[in-house]
Amino acid sequence: MDTVARVIGLWLLLMAAGYVLGVPLGLIYGLISTAISKLLRFWNDHELGPKKRGAREVDEGSVATLLHELSQRAKIPTPRLYVIDSPYANASATGRNYRHSSICVTTGLLYGLGRDELAGVLSHELAHVLQRSTLTKTIAATLSAAISLLPFVGLFVGLGIDRSVLLLFIAPTAAFLIQLAISRASEYAADECGARLSGRPDALASALRIASTDDAEFGDPANNPIAKALLTFGKRFVGPRRDNPFSAYPLPMNRIAALERLSRGRDTDNPASGEL
User: Fold this and answer.
1) Which residues are known to be catalytic?
2) Which of 13, 16, 50, 61 could join 82 in a cystine, given CB atoms 3.0 to 4.6 angstroms apart?
């Protein structure tokens, strides 16, 4: 629900910015142009995304079998499995729907985790597929990009240079922060759904202690000075124990704490059961 609320917030921000500009035509143009570019990537990302990362497809072996078992438990088709040669322990899921989805895992993840921990990570990624996280993030990115275009439209419709410049800083920044908040909420939701799917919140928590995804997904997105400055500012602004508003990922320790609370609740409700 938090994710849906934030997407609605992005939409309302887009409507408000368009109202201030008084240019519904610019609003439509921004939506259409950004939607087309995002849709082209979204439609085939389950195939193109892994290939861009240099991944190889795997359709047999213990990991493929484990993914198939978890997919049957989730009652969805088994996503295509890709492996990336990387020392970093990480995983990612993408796809437009259940039948067009893929999961990438690194060799560092495969070698660094036990079977239960790996099942927890794969369940987390399956949860992203179940919850259509890629679609949600694509919608959020489209709205955010459209909002970023609106201030430039204002220069051509008599809004004035001062108000256009002010909107140029406020609207895109607000949209960007909401987009990042949607991504963080998606991770928490996938943690909970994945933990219930695997039945082992403690195993996923253990995996997170090894496979830290804070501010990184197959590489560090904060690889330019501006992004690093924003991350540093966010950490100093909110403190070391709260999620960074300028990060797409929650702090691993906060995710672990949420999983530990879920595990304690499971033990209390079903002390003799290993299922959720």
Assistant:
1) 125
2) 50
Report which DSSP code applies to 242: S
Q: What is the pLDDT of residues 150-187, one digit of tens each?
A: 666 655 555 566 666 777 777 777 778 888 888 899 99
> Residue 194: CB partners within 8 Å, gap ≥ 6?
120, 121, 123, 124, 125, 126, 127, 204
Closest alpha carbon to 252 in 64, 90, 11:
90
Higher-scoring residue by pLDDT: 67, 221? 67
DSSP secondary structure code for residue 111 in this structure: H
Query: Comparing C-alpha atoms, which of 245, 214, 242 is closest to residue 90?
Result: 214
Q: Which two tokens stand for residue 254?
A: 């906060």
Cα separation of 272 and 45, whole Å?
Answer: 42
Q: Which residue has the higher pLDDT, 33 or 194?
A: 194
**Separation CA 193–CA 182 (nearest Å):** 16
* DSSP of 61-88: SHHHHHHHHHHHHHTSPPPEEEEE--SS
- Give the alpha-carbon dihedral of 126, 127, 128, 131, to 10 degrees: 130
Rounded-to-integer distance, Cα 64 and Cα 230, Å: 39
Both tokens of 266, joined, read 């499971």
Q: Which residue has the tokens 């219930």?
A: 196
Instruction: Give the span between the Cα atoms of 44 and 128, in whole angstroms.
Output: 17
One-letter amino acid identity for 200? Answer: R
Side-chain-side CA neighbours of residue 100 (13 Å)? 13
Q: What is the pTM of this model?
A: 0.78
Strand partners of residue 105: 83, 91
Task: Give 131's contacts (C-beta < 8 A, 6+ positions apart).
Answer: 186, 189, 190, 193
Interatomic CA distance for residues 230 and 228, integer angstroms: 5
